[in-house]
Amino acid sequence: MDKLVIEGGKPLSGSIVIQGAKNAALPILAASMLVEGNVTLDQVPNLLDIEVMLNILRDLGCKAEHKNQTVWLDTTGVQSSHIPESLMRQMRSSIFLMGPLLARFGEVTIYQPGGCAIGERKIDLHLRGLMSLGAQIEEEGSRVVCYAKKLRGAEIHLDFPSVGATENIMMAAVLADGLTTISNAAREPEIQDLQNFLNAMGAKIIGAGTDTITIEGVEKLTPCRYPVIPDRIVTGTIMVAAAATRGSVTMHNTCPSHLTSLIHVLRRAGVQITVDGDIIKVGSANRPKSIDRIVTSPYPAFPTDLQSQVMVLLALADGVSIMKETIFEGRFKHVDELCRMGADIRVDLNSAFIRGVPRLYGATVEATDLRAGAALVIAGLAAQGKTVVEQIHHIDRGYDRIETMLEHLGARIKRVSSPVNNLIQP
Ligand SMILES: CC(=O)N[C@H]1[C@@H](OP(=O)(O)OP(=O)(O)OC[C@H]2O[C@@H](n3ccc(=O)[nH]c3=O)[C@H](O)[C@@H]2O)O[C@H](CO)[C@@H](O)[C@@H]1O
Ligand SMILES: C=C(OP(=O)(O)O)C(=O)O
């Protein structure tokens, strides 16, 4: 089991290029199953979740190669529309294959997906959306079998703007007969990226990025080459790390407009941020200021995927802050670990009350999920002394060798296998 060992207290400084977005690449890889032929995707990060998705695609009969951030797919051999339970369980995003495989083969068998333990994460909105398009669904235990000779367009209203359900319905509706509208659709940038990819293959979709998406079904798609957007959550993680260590970092290959809510929050905390095209510079020499209330909500509001990272900054702020999590009920697991490092945080229902402390202290802590793990890494970078972050396979799901990226910014961080003592000379 790998661990990260961090000798904290050194401000991050320098510049880095941000990786492509996990949450855009995963649905786009799934959407590639809608077409027959060679699809090439650029800016695909080297992540555990991408590896799992490529293994699922190979299991379905697709040829897949991933080298230097480019993925080459040959989907002509895809025959199967059955995803084994062991593969489904490896991540939540396996669910993205339901819509495309159903649209291409008229049937699909999947199992309840796995993923980080951050909440219940039902798939009812996905299933109801597909049923509205004419699919019949049979559930038996964790197995879900879905049939439809030909999907037909429909008006679908989502009770909640679920990112994954919006994407699954879009992918299924692309080859359906007639027009589909999704109202109360999620508006995340990754949904716009999926629309752009599908349209590049000949789909007719408008409205992604707003709460109403319209899909006019087409007969057939044509393969294409497509670059995935930059990862706004990785960008945000580094921005917070720069601020928490009172460093100065320049990030290239970013989409600042995707980070408006974070930029606003960090500026309120007293962090200096400048934006120039696709470059974001973050600098901070002073103790952060507390923020009375941050609430996570669907895009464009403050993202749940940056909640734990920003909590580290607030844990070091001058004053009391409140963070309310409204998307996932199990997303405060980093709090106990941060308290082990000296943070003063109390959780009541879905709100965390954060009384800032002047400093955190190194400790051995456990990453319980992807973003909780990223938060603990930031805490370790800012803390006095040595921090060991365990269970870092969670972090590898979303950050392409996080230690290499941070080392490049001057951090004293190493990935090690046990034993961990004496591997870093301060
Ligand atoms: C790969 C990917 O893009 N992952 C992101 C996506 O996850 P994901 O697509 O799973 O997130 P959703 O927007 O679907 O989930 C949001 C909320 O809706 C609930 N829900 C969802 C679907 C459903 O059928 N029924 C239901 O009740 C979930 O339990 C959760 O409470 O959006 C989340 C919210 O921004 C992010 O944290 C994830 O990083
Ligand atoms: C929760 C996340 O991802 P997933 O939906 O893939 O579990 C995340 O990226 O923070």
How much helical structure, as a percent, in the residues?
Answer: 25-40%
The low-confidence runs, each spanning 5 or more residues with pLDDT under 50, are none
Q: Specify Rg, calculated over alpha carbons.
A: 22 Å
Bound molecules: uridine-diphosphate-N-acetylglucosamine, phosphoenolpyruvate
CATH homologous superfamily assignment of the largest domain: Enolpyruvate transferase domain
Number of strands: 23
CATH-assigned fold name of the largest domain: UDP-n-acetylglucosamine1-carboxyvinyl-transferase, Chain
Strand-residue fraction? 15-25%
Characterize the biggest β-sheet. 4 strands, mixed
Question: Between the first and last Cα atoms, what is the distance in angstroms?
Answer: 23 Å
Give the overall silhouette: globular
Q: How is the largest sheet built, in terms of strand order?
A: 21-22-1-23
Subcellular location: Cytoplasm
GO molecular function: UDP-N-acetylglucosamine 1-carboxyvinyltransferase activity
Binding site for phosphoenolpyruvate: 22-23
Family: Belongs to the EPSP synthase family. MurA subfamily.
Please tag this protein with its features.
426 residues; alpha+beta; UDP-n-acetylglucosamine1-carboxyvinyl-transferase, Chain; 2 domains; four-stranded mixed β-sheet; 23 strands; globular; binds uridine-diphosphate-N-acetylglucosamine; binds phosphoenolpyruvate
Give structural notes.
The chain is of the alpha+beta class and 426 residues long. It contains 14 helices and 23 strands. The protein is globular, with a radius of gyration of 22 Å. The chain starts with a strand and ends in a 9-residue tail after the last strand. The protein binds uridine-diphosphate-N-acetylglucosamine and phosphoenolpyruvate (PEP). The site of phosphoenolpyruvate has 10 residues, from helix 12.
